[in-house]
Amino acid sequence: MNWNQLQSASLESIIDWAASHPWCKAMQACAQDAKWHSEGDVWTHTQMVMHQLHELESWQDLSPHEQNVLVFTALLHDVAKPLTTQIDPGTGNVVSPKHALKGEQLARTILRDCGCDLATREEIARMVRYHGRPVFVMHKNDPTREVVRHSWLVNNRLLYLFALADFRGRDSHTNTRSEEDLHFWKIAAEEAHCYDQPYRFASEHARFLFFRQTNPNLHYVPHENFSCHVTVMAGLPGSGKDRWLAQHKGDLPVVSLDEIRGDLMIDPTDNQGKVIQQAKAVCRRHLRTGNSFAFNATNIMQMTRGRWLDLFADYGARIELVYIEPPLEVIFQQNKARDTVVPESIIRRLAGKLEPPTWAEVHHLTLLEG
């Protein structure tokens, strides 16, 4: 089934569809610690959670889109446990460190392969990544800051409802956690007015600084005097970044890593040190003179683009990020029309590493599917 079919499929049909895939078979073979999951393997727990969603008191009040987000969050929330499960040498317990982080990436790939639209895919992928956060919020030094932060990454109400289903969809031999722990997330989010919407900062710059500071003040209203505006492009090779810039930002000078590579006659597979050095020099020249510009590179991984965003922020620029991700088939076709064709194998490898940007990174974000 493709995504259009999955959205209207019954719960049992979705379960049957999933059961035929290797990632699901791996969950069936993955044991869990009986202390927390005496019901058995990961797939057994997953199905229990999916069925618990329909038992939620507010299930019928949700929109079809919200129901789909929750169903596929439940389906994929532990999909990376087979990749991370191990025996703790100190305690002998079965543990799955960072399974939510790896699960985000795997969920993204699974959803992309079945044709899920970009916005919904990223909503579900982030839910998978943060699905375990609500139970721990009462142990945070500043719960309000925690729910405010997540309100710009996920829907706090949906995250809370999923956490309820996750808690109820298991047989546990311990009572060290309760639904009251989860309810504290709901209370904290409601008090901060971000339970069913992103927290309303005083300005986009206030939000931008909140995510960049160690101990941010929620009520701080920063002075805005941007040195310039930087439009940052992100997307796989062949995604259409050059075309978008030509159509929408044709008046801006462009700092392009591809062009710099060409000028320096450096292959993309060679050491990129000189390319990065030259690009930084050109960017700094624009930033020092207050000249708005566009920065064009793949920027598909958070750590890589973060270094550039840090540079622009240090000079007081307002940062807009445009991320473009058409279907892979379209990217392959457009790639063939490029002056420098990137091997399809490299594009597929990069696609497996995608970390699309979020509102936590920039002043303004645009996600496009081509």
Automatic annotation (TrEMBL):
Q: Which UniProt keywords apply?
A: Nucleotide-binding
Coiled-coil region list: none
Known Pfam families for this protein? AAA_33, HD
Listed GO molecular functions?
A: nucleotide binding
SUPFAM superfamilies in UniProt = HD-domain/PDEase-like, P-loop containing nucleoside triphosphate hydrolases
Q: Which InterPro entries match?
A: HD/PDEase_dom, HD_domain, P-loop_NTPase, tRNA_CCA-adding_enzyme
TM annotation in the entry: none
**Protein name per its UniProtKB record:** HD domain-containing protein
Q: Which organism is it from?
A: Bremerella cremea
